[in-house]
Every structure is written in C-alpha cells, then in structure tokens.
C-alpha cells in the first residue's frame, strides 16, 4: 500500500484543504479534488518539503489574487479568477505532479529531481505573484517582445516591480527546498529557473496567447515545464 498509517496526518491536512477551498470558494469542487490528488502525489514523491511548497504556492497565490481586488477592478484588470478550476490547478501544479510521479517510480533519482520539482513550483509562484501584484504596484509596463511601453495587465506585459516580486516568490520556494535539503547550488538554480519560467510565461503570453494560439492554462503549464526542464539541464550538465 502506497499510503501508510504514518501518512494519515498529511491526508487529513489535504482533506481539510479540500473542505476549506470549497467552503471559501477558492476552488471549484472538481478543482479541489484535483488539488487533492496532486498534493498526495507530490507528498508521496517529495515528502513534507514538497507538500509545504505546494501549500505555500496555493496560499500565496490565493492571497495575491484576492489582494487589491477592488483596485484591480477599478483598473479594469480583475486578474485571475479567485475561484480556480481544475485546468488552472493542473496548469500550475501539473509539472510538479509529473516530476513527483517520476520520483515515485525511480526513487534513486530523488536528490536530482527534487530541485526540478521545486523549480516548477517556483515558476508558478513567481508568475502568480508578479502578475497579480505587479499590476498593482508596477509603474512602467513593457511588452516583453518589443520592450516598448504597453498596457498594464495585457498578456506578455511586464514591469520591473512585478519582475522583482516574482523573483521573491521563487526565493520563497527555494528557501523551503533548502531548509529541507540543505543550502547548496540547487538553491540558486531553483531561483534562476523559477525566474526564467516566469519570463517564459510572459514570452508565450505575448507571442502566442495574444494571437489565441494558446490559452492561459497552457501558457502556465508550459512555463512551469520550461523551468523544470531548465533546472534539470543545469543540474545534469553544469552542476
């Protein structure tokens, strides 16, 4: 049996999260149970550090999305929906869940894959915080393809303030990783890959989402996948 008695506290914590998410209308019912499955797999593959990173991302993203809601509406930029659906859950945590499954199948590669999983969540955290808080606190906004000034809140538009907020978000996830696994090179790799994934999200938004070639969920998933792949590449060839 994969789930053992010692895992019961985490299972109860995840079930409590499902109940709270539905009651507080942070997730739809299917999204809450999708998150439960993702959370359980991430815990089984990455342990307490993995579930803590996922929980931190969920809470941080929820707060950032709700933060300044009235001002966002005044700016005609309401941001992401506070009540997220299954597609949004998978878009942000799907990469980490896939890596966790690989860790379960090939446990001998856990030490190498743990930073990869963390990089995917760092990218999701960086993107959510930079987009939701950057539109509130940014002063100058630029198209990430042309670097010309552009309209706040449009796909692929970035600000210096939002970029730094995103890096701070990646730093939070990397710090959780380091607290569990130790402060070494991977700590910096996760921050770098998370920030790079955030930029990849903006790039895909400007290049493809504006042209309706990809929707936001695919942009989010591909950017986290890019961050995880970049972290793996660095770990294999440059560590």
From TrEMBL:
What is the top-level taxon of the source organism? Bacteria
Matching entries from Pfam families are given as: DUF92 (PF01940)
Q: Where is the signal peptide?
A: none
Question: Where does the protein principally reside?
Answer: membrane
| Chain segments annotated as coiled-coil in the UniProt record | none
Give compartment(s).
Answer: Membrane
- Which residue ranges traverse the bilayer? 40-68, 89-109, 162-180, 187-206, 218-238
What the entry lists under InterPro entries is as follows:
DUF92_TMEM19
Q: Which UniProt keywords apply?
A: Membrane, Transmembrane, Transmembrane helix
Choose one Gene Ontology CC annotation of this protein and give it: membrane
Q: How does it sit in the membrane?
A: Multi-pass membrane protein
Q: Which family does it belong to?
A: Belongs to the TMEM19 family.
* Name the record gives this protein: TIGR00297 family protein
